[in-house]
From TrEMBL:
GO terms for molecular function: GTP binding; GTPase activity; signal recognition particle binding. The gene is ftsY. It catalyses: GTP + H2O = GDP + phosphate + H(+). It is found in: Cell membrane; Cytoplasm. Belongs to the GTP-binding SRP family. FtsY subfamily. It is a peripheral membrane protein. This is Signal recognition particle receptor FtsY. Gene3D superfamilies: P-loop containing nucleotide triphosphate hydrolases, Signal recognition particle SRP54, nucleotide-binding domain.
Amino acid sequence: MFDNLFNKNKEESEKVEEKEDLQQEKKGFFGRLKEGLEKTRKGITDKVDDIIKHYHKIDEELFEELEEVLIMADIGFETTETIIENVKDKVKERKLTEATDVKDVLKEELKERLEDVEGDSKLNIEPSPSIILVVGVNGVGKTTTIGKLAYKFKNNGKKVLIAAGDTFRAAAIEQLNEWTNRSNVDLISHKEGSDPAAVIFDGVQAAKARKTDILICDTAGRLHNKKNLMNELNKIVRIVNREYPDATKEILLVVDATTGQNAVMQAKVFKEACNVTGIALTKLDGTAKGGVIFAVQSELNVPIKLVGVGEGINDLQEFDRDNFVNAIFPD
Ligand SMILES: Nc1nc2c(ncn2[C@@H]2O[C@H](COP(=O)(O)OP(=O)(O)OP(=O)(O)O)[C@@H](O)[C@H]2O)c(=O)[nH]1
């Protein structure tokens, strides 16, 4: 009887999830992005609008106040300075005098800043087979990101396999298991406490044998000891390079936007530990400081590839700099 009740509840909650997914589809990706960036929009655009209203004409004080808004939004000190200097230059060059003109120049400059990075903003998954190593500290949204990616790839007709390399927490393996059930993809896992590199090794062998298009590997993200973290990640990267030399590779670092400047620090440690090729910035919906995206990308010189703007399946989006800035500064 309890089994029946459990199954009924499960079915009902799956129906609710499906309904939510459908509602999200209807809103469209840009609508979801805009909604997810609402707090950041209020933290930047509303304040910029207030400044513009107050000043009417462009002067030095206006720039000082703009600078303050950008720093408060966690864009980072250095990046903010560069943005303000460039906006000033453009204003001078174009002989602009009205405060209202500054907004468009700022928008243009923010888009340029996001473009100013080496590498493509698309995930390296072509040609197949490909392997995505997902790295980042605990709690930043790694498991959720892997689950959402697997679901998307599967829906796009790809053959996907997940390797549960975070063997330090049984809950992480269990959570991945739930996502794989939901997306109907296979999971390679060992028991809690086993060697993460052995799981990744098995994952690669299974991916080859099953002719998988994309293998996504979770990794453990304990940051308390940088040397251990480096050794562990290096070992995994070595195994992947040795066992799967021809696979297209992506090392995706997941960082939590709500941790602000801490996200930048974390990202730097991981970049030292392994050759990070892309960043997924999660939980942008939970912060007014979404400006951290500028700091992360410019201080690391690694492209942002994915942004998380909510917990729903469609809330993990491919990063598009124009859409991103337009969602913060709607016309
Ligand atoms: N609001 C919001 N929540 C998110 C987003 N991405 C992930 N989360 C939530 O963040 C929490 C942590 O996510 P996990 O995927 O468990 O994080 P993890 O990095 O795998 O953490 P460990 O399993 O502890 O290593 C979960 O409750 C997720 O639903 C996002 O973009 N927006």
